[in-house]
């Protein structure tokens, strides 16, 4: 009898069947799709301020309207149902729920999410709510932002408000999405909001995001039913050396500490890695980590969300290297504190419209590592996808074979990881809709559904129809 593993090894392009109960979904983020930036009590977030600052975002684009999901959510939920999605991962806009980051919730903001969740449930789609996908209330940034401990405390209070309002409907919660981006792109390189360029502030922000996560999990557990699930989503970097030499291997270690273990250490092991402290000793003594913080941060999780797009390739350098090939945007300031003697390299081969290498082996290797490091922690792919230069043809169709090939390759990698022992239980395609792609504005299209921005018209791409069939059948067709 041929086992699944043997079949995968001998015929990698054959149809692949995923385990029964595997969850198929898609994902979005509030600032990228909602619009309605000043409606029903919502006040500016750091991304509103950043996007409205000349020179920050391509073409001067902002999320003021985005894809107008705030008004077209019924249409978007109907699309999800048409595509047969089993789950929808979305984020709550903190400044829509608690505009100043303090005080009581705004009921109109909560009502929007109540209606959204009710419609999802009515159509058999599991809501997966993320508390924070980068839209910090501007008033909290004005008070110091994530480098300050008070922001973590405020986040826990916000988590409690959200749980009280939606906990009877939403059973799956994520505290933070990609805190690495919030800390190191927001406060280190400045290519994300709030646009600050202070390496010590970036490290302080990383710690207080960790603390915010732990405090929020406690707030959620105190309020949610016993069957609710809590998680965090990390963009774990699959870091590879340019050569097999010792210096390049050490460059991998250094970046792995800054990209990954700065979060997995305290969140999942209850300690920061000692090599991280040594690597950054010239910048800070980490005295902002107080007694008891690590106990607060390390909270039991029901699963770990994993975002993956492309691998990272590094080498040792004499200090004259550049971080601009790290895939995270160009800046005169590095998002890698204490890693001045590490250079980043463009991986070989095909790339997406973002310039990111297409390499599903990175996802396989990453899942195998996580399964080995944290064997009792289930995994979900909470973001994976690609931007391409999509357009509607004269017949109104959007054909995107490159995206289908990308997703198929990465799903095959997920399947292989499952066969080889990784406990991966679901996959969320990024993204449901074309949307505001942060500093790239509307120039990059990640969606399974094409959005004509002047009219807001939604057109499911060929990849959406393809993914819908995979989600319905649980079978990945052969290449």
From TrEMBL:
It holds the Pfam family Glyco_hydro_1. It is an enzyme of class 3 (hydrolase). Keywords: Carbohydrate metabolism, Cellulose degradation, Glycosidase, Hydrolase, Polysaccharide degradation. PROSITE patterns: GLYCOSYL_HYDROL_F1_1, GLYCOSYL_HYDROL_F1_2. InterPro entries: GH, GH_1_N_CS, Glyco_hydro_1, Glyco_hydro_1_AS, Glyco_hydro_1_beta-glucosidase. The active site is at residue 383. Its EC number is 3.2.1.21. It catalyses: Hydrolysis of terminal, non-reducing beta-D-glucosyl residues with release of beta-D-glucose. SUPFAM superfamilies: (Trans)glycosidases. One of its GO terms (molecular function) is beta-glucosidase activity. Belongs to the glycosyl hydrolase 1 family. PANTHER family: GLYCOSYL HYDROLASE, LP05116P. NCBIfam families: BGL. This is Beta-glucosidase. It comes from Streptomyces hirsutus.
């Amino acid at each position: 009898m041929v086992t699944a593993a043997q079949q995968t090894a001998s015929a990698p392009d054959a149809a692949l069947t995923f385990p029964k109960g595997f969850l198929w979904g898609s994902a979005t983020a509030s600032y990228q799709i909602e619009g309605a930036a000043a409606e029903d009590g919502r006040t500016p977030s750091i991304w509103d301020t950043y996007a409205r600052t000349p020179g920050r975002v391509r073409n001067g684009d902002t999320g003021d309207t985005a894809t107008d999901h705030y008004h077209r959510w019924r249409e978007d939920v109907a699309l999800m149902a048409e595509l047969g999605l089993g789950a929808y991962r979305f984020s709550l806009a903190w400044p829509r729920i608690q505009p100043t980051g303090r005080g009581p919730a705004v009921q109109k903001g909560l009502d929007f999410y109540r209606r959204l969740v009710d419609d999802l449930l009515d159509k058999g789609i599991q809501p997966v709510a993320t508390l924070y996908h980068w839209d910090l209330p501007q008033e909290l940034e004005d008070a110091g932002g994530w480098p300050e401990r008070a922001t973590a405390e405020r986040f826990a209070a916000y988590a409690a408000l959200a749980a009280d309002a939606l906990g009877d409907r939403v059973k799956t919660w994520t505290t933070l999405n990609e805190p690495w981006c919030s800390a190191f792109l927001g406060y280190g390189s400045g290519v994300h909001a709030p646009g600050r360029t202070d390496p010590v502030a970036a490290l302080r922000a990383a710690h207080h995001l960790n603390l915010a996560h732990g405090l929020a999990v406690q707030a959620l557990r105190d309020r949610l039913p016993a069957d609710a699930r809590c998680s965090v989503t990390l963009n774990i970097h699959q870091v590879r050396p340019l050569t097999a030499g010792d210096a390049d291997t050490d460059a991998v270690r250094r970046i792995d500490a800054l990209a990954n273990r700065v979060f997995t250490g305290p969140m999942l092991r209850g300690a920061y890695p000692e090599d991280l402290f040594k690597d950054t000793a010239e910048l800070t003594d980490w005295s902002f980590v107080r007694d008891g913080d690590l106990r607060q941060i390390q909270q039991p999780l029901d699963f770990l969300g994993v975002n993956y797009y492309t691998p990272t390739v590094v080498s040792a350098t004499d200090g004259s290297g550049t971080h601009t090939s790290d895939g995270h945007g160009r800046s005169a300031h590095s998002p890698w504190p204490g890693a001045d003697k590490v250079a980043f390299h463009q991986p070989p081969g095909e790339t997406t419209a973002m310039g990111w290498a297409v390499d599903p082996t990175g996802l396989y290797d990453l899942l195998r590592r996580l399964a080995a490091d944290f064997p009792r922690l289930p995994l979900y792919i909470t973001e994976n996808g690609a931007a391409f230069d999509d357009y509607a043809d004269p017949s109104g169709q959007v054909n995107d074979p490159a995206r289908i090939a990308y997703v198929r390759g990465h799903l095959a990698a997920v399947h292989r990881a499952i066969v080889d022992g990784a406990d991966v239980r679901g996959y969320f395609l990024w993204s449901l809709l074309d949307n505001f792609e942060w500093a790239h504005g509307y120039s990059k299209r990640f969606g399974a559904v094409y959005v004509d921005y002047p009219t807001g018209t939604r057109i499911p791409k060929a990849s959406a129809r393809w993914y819908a069939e995979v989600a319905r059948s649980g079978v990945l067709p052969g290449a």
